[in-house]
Amino acid sequence: MSAYLPLASHEDDDAEEINPPFSQSRNEIRRSRNSKLLVASFVVFASILLFTFDVVYINIPHPFAKAYPNSASNALESFMSHLFPIGMPNRTDNWENENSKAMRKLIACMKTNTCGGNQTSIVLMSSFHFSNSIHGHVSGEDIWALSILNALTEMGYTAIFAPDNRELARTYRTYPDLVKVVIAEGDQAMQCFNDPVCIKSPTHPLGIPAWKMLSFHFWRGSANPLGSKWTLSPENYGVIDPHGNSVDNVYLGYSIERACMKIPFVPSGERPKQVYVFAKYSGYFSGNDYAYPNQTFVPPSDEPSLFDLKIVAGLRSATDGEVPEAIHDLGTLNKEAFYEQLGKSRALIGVGRPNLSPSPYDAMCMGVPFINPILVFDSNHPEDRTKWFTQHDGLKYQNPPYVYHVKKGDSEGFWQAVKEAVEHPIERYIVPEMTMDALKMRVAAIVEKDWKSMGAEVLRERQKSGEGEVCPSLYLLFPKMLT
Ligand SMILES: *[C@@H]1O[C@H](CO)[C@@H](O)[C@H](O)[C@H]1NC(C)=O
Ligand SMILES: *[C@@H]1O[C@H](CO)[C@@H](O)[C@H](O)[C@H]1NC(C)=O
Ligand SMILES: *[C@@H]1O[C@H](CO)[C@@H](O)[C@H](O)[C@H]1NC(C)=O
């Protein structure tokens, strides 16, 4: 919000000029007006001079040729010094601060006509997960958000944070034409759609057009007033779950490539005989989703590859259930310690929860295969993966040596998978759709897509069928369709 304070204080300055203090005499006012006129005419004169100089001499090497851009940039700098101040130049974890940096760069490049390819295309990051992600939060949504931000900025787009709807509406109306799309939380998009001071309408023309609002939704299902086609998903739900309710969701996906490549790879020869059990809470070792009920984690003694295998976990809380025997608890691990332990393990063992976590992708990128439990399958067609429900459905079509699938309760299959994983080390592996390049292509596609025409189609369908809401902003944008 502080990004907007300078504007407010600027307005205060104007107010003082219009209502001078009583002590100021009329003459003083006139004098000040005259001097302003003088300054103004000088500026006009100077601009004509500089413009002429610019056009006529631009290609001629001359000492002045260097002086001109400097004086222009000095003028810009002095103008900019009143707008979007950067309170903490050395920080990158504060969204207000990042907004100021981006706005300064944008205004400067627009003024000097030097904007990069996509710089004048703004994407409003209107989910708290975006601001949280630069602040260091690491939930699945935060990791997803950070990779979208990285993809946008690597392609030169201007990303501006607006974590709630008030901030969103206020930001949007400042430069509506520059905003290509808004990426919002699902419930936020719903609220904005029904909020007359958020959505665009005949009485709120600078509001956000419904078709520009995309929902940032980690789970299955639609989370946007205009439906699944405006709902962005981290996984390709249409492929994972072709019989489900998310076939029309937009697969945006994410990439852990940049973060993972910064972590050194441990060659298999240097790894201890260790596997990592993926469970933050001891509660994950019970309940309906627990994949290995009635099973011990003590490796079978007749299996040489598993002899002396160390089975570790980093439990944040061991108070909400029993931890199976043979699991060595390393206690609460911070992010670095977790990656260190994971990176020197020979397999990551899923126990049923958490669902769709990014960690198995990190693991494979660090050369650690994942054991993905199958919690539900069709007993008539046990190998039909479209009917599987696994801990990580984003990986259910992957195969060994990267991903091993084990049916819930299949103790023998479990140990077979652990053995195979330990015996077949892998190099770094990033699922092809999850490389940064693949992500950038999808991000570019959603930013550049003709959402407006699609919105018109939805409106037409809804008017014809009488089903679904018809938003005021759609009326405003397509008035002819109302006749
Ligand atoms: C910020 O960074 C600049 C240049 O990188 C450095 O000179 C300055 O000391 C830093 N300030 C703080 C408060 O760290
Ligand atoms: C601008 O975005 C497009 C995708 O929309 C991308 O292909 C291109 O490389 C980007 N331009 C720059 C200068 O990064
Ligand atoms: C685990 O054991 C209980 C009773 O000991 C039994 O009811 C249950 O079916 C078993 N579960 C599996 C998956 O084998």
From TrEMBL:
Keywords of this entry: Glycoprotein, Glycosyltransferase, Golgi apparatus, Membrane, Signal-anchor, Transferase, Transmembrane, Transmembrane helix
What parts of the sequence cross the membrane? 37-60
Q: Which residues form the Glycosyltransferase family 18 catalytic domain?
A: 219-450
Entry keyword Cell membrane: no
Q: In which pathway does it act?
A: Protein modification; protein glycosylation
GO terms for biological process, alphabetical: protein N-linked glycosylation
Q: What is this protein called?
A: alpha-1,6-mannosyl-glycoprotein 6-beta-N-acetylglucosaminyltransferase
